[in-house]
Amino acid sequence: MYNILVVDDEIQIRKLIKKYAEYEGHDVTEAENGIEAVRLCENRRFDIIIMDIMMTVLDGLSASRIIRGFSDTPILILSARGEEYDKISGFRVGIDDYVVKPFSGKELMMRIDAIMKRVNSPKKEEKKDLFRYRGLEIDFAARTVVIDGERAYLSPKEYDLLSYMCKNKNIALSRERLITEVWGYDFFGDDRTLDTHIKLLRKTLKNYSDMIVTLRGVGYRFDTE
User: Which among 122, 121, 141, 116 is positioned nearest to 131, based on CA atoms?
Assistant: First the structure.
């Protein structure tokens, strides 16, 4: 099964997660702060990291940012706060999912399974390797984005969303279709997760942000016309 790193300064939370994870057959390693988590990740390979945000010794977002510098291990953030700012900050760092406390142990295990299915699913063959529109360039094979000659850094899910919309440019894409195709049928979030990623993409695209058009009551369109 999965080798899981649980990072939380509350021992009861760690015990709860460990209980459900071990029941599902997973191996669990515990860390009580962000610094310990970074050190563990530098020396060991985990399948997924469950990271609390509010910790007194290196908070979860800072630890996630450091880990993202050398590892692509999926990260699921836990937080007692559910403000959009926290979610945007987390997705900008490169986390894969966000769960607000208090949470159900069963739901958490389902979210872990959903993330791992997405990570381990075979990638579809790209029909086109490169997209260019004025100063915007997307290299599908390399998963890179260049804007007016400068490399743009997107989280994995930001890139997946931009890539899907680009490949279906000038087509009205419903919210349901975007969530299904980009997050998968096992998505456990809500529409706000999609909206948050759209906001992040528009900010990243800078002068090309207006290429993502909002279709009220429907969804979005990546417009090149």
Answer: 141
125 in a structural domain: no
CATH number at residue 20: 3.40.50.2300
What gap in Å lies between CA 85 and CA 2, rounded to an integer?
Answer: 30
Phi and psi, residue 57, nearest 5°: -105, 95
Choose from 33-42, 66-75, 87-96, 177-186 the range with maximum mean pLDDT: 33-42
What is the distance of C-alpha 165 from the center of its chain? 17
pLDDT number for residue 155: 85
Same domain? For 141 and 189 the reply is yes
Residues 6+ apart with CB under 8 A from 207: 135, 147, 148
Q: For the segment 177-219, what is each residue's pLDDT rounded down to a tens digit?
A: 998 888 875 566 666 888 999 999 999 999 999 999 999 989 9
Q: What is the pTM of this model?
A: 0.63
Domain edge (last residue) among 60, 88, 120 = 120
CA distances from 51 to 27, 63, 204, 213 (A): 16, 9, 25, 34
Do 144 and 210 lie in one domain? The reply is yes
Cα angle vertex 178, ends 177, 181, to 5°?
Answer: 80
